[in-house]
């Protein structure tokens, strides 16, 4: 050993080695103490929180089961009530998520969290979001009202907010129409529910009306018979005309040229076609029977 440390005795050379060994033992003991402390803490937390974790898992499982069960029950009940499919899904999912939120809050309370404060925070956040999205939420509310009261359904021909078209889809935020000239119109539900809605297809039969002008001074019964024959011709053609209610002919505006209303019941899906048929049939009948009014005469006065 003297060769390694010249000028030092054997005892002097052994001192640093023993100090290094002692510091290593202290580090080992310190590490063991820390490990024991961590194990003690882990054991304490395990004893304290294991039942709570197991209880939370059980509560979540029960909550999930109840939420799924509630959604199925509500879906079946509302389908039996013949509510709209979109409304059924929305309400069923809303009930499911409400039950899940209650289950999560119950789990948080088992861990000592202040659920009341948490609910207050959620309420404040919900209020802020509601104020920021009040326009959108109004459309959702209007969509729910449309799905509940059902002034129209998918496939109906309606006039809404100045647009005429067939309803393609009713969603929570908007209603989609397809116009006769093949345009897609998307209207916010707030505008739909807040305006006048005209459902042109609510009744399976509509009344097609054509105004015919005939010469004055002709026997009313004869004119009525001619025009009624034209209306019956449209019904007999079977291209959208309906026998019930029966065709009618009414004198609307008597005068130099009498104006008559000729009316025929029509299937709403072929309404425009029936109007065209009735117009042509009425014109033919008036012309062939000699009922057409005389052409207008223009008088020219020469002032010299």
Structural class: alpha+beta
Given the C-alpha coordinates, what overall shape results?
Answer: rod-shaped
Chain-averaged pLDDT: 81
Secondary structure tally: strands: 9
How much of the sequence lies in strands comes to 15-25%
Helical proportion, percent range: 55-70%
The CATH class of the largest domain is Mainly Alpha
- Return the CATH topology of the largest domain: Helix Hairpins
Question: Stretches where pLDDT falls below 50 for ≥5 residues?
Answer: 1-5
**Spatial gap, N to C terminus:** 155 Å
CATH architecture term of the largest domain: Orthogonal Bundle
SSE string? HHHHEEEEHEEHEEEH
The value of Rg in angstroms is 43 Å
Largest sheet: 5 strands, antiparallel
Going across the major beta sheet, what is the strand order? Answer: 4-3-2-1-5
Q: What is the total number of structural domains?
A: 3
């Amino acid at each position: 050993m003297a060769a390694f440390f010249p000028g030092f005795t054997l005892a002097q050379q052994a001192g640093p080695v023993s100090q290094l060994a002692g510091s290593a033992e202290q580090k080992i003991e310190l590490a063991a103490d820390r490990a024991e402390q961590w194990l003690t803490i882990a054991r304490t937390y395990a004893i304290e929180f294991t039942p709570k974790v197991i209880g939370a898992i059980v509560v979540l499982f029960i909550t999930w089961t109840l939420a799924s069960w509630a959604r199925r029950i509500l879906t079946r009940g509302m389908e039996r009530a013949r509510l709209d499919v979109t409304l059924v899904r929305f309400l069923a999912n809303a009930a499911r998520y409400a039950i899940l939120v209650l289950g999560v809050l119950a789990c948080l309370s088992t861990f000592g969290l202040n659920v009341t404060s948490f609910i207050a925070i959620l309420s404040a956040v919900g209020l802020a979001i509601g104020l920021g999205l009040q326009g959108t939420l109004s459309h959702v509310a209007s969509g729910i009202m449309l799905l509940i009261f059902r002034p129209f359904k998918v496939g109906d021909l309606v006039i809404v907010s100045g647009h005429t078209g067939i309803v393609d889809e009713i969603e929570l935020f908007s209603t989609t129409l397809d116009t006769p000239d093949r345009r897609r119109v998307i209207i916010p539900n707030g505008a739909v529910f807040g305006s006048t809605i005209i459902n042109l297809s609510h009744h399976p039969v509509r009344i097609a009306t054509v105004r015919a002008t005939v010469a004055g001074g002709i026997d009313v019964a004869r004119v009525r018979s001619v025009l009624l024959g034209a209306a019956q011709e449209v019904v007999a053609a079977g291209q959208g005309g309906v026998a019930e209610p029966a065709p009618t002919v009414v004198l609307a505006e008597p005068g130099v040229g009498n104006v008559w209303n000729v009316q025929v019941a029509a299937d709403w899906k072929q309404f425009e076609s029936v109007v065209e048929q009735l117009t042509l049939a009425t014109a033919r009948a008036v012309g062939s029977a000699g009922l057409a009014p005389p052409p207008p005469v223009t008088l020219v006065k020469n002032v010299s």
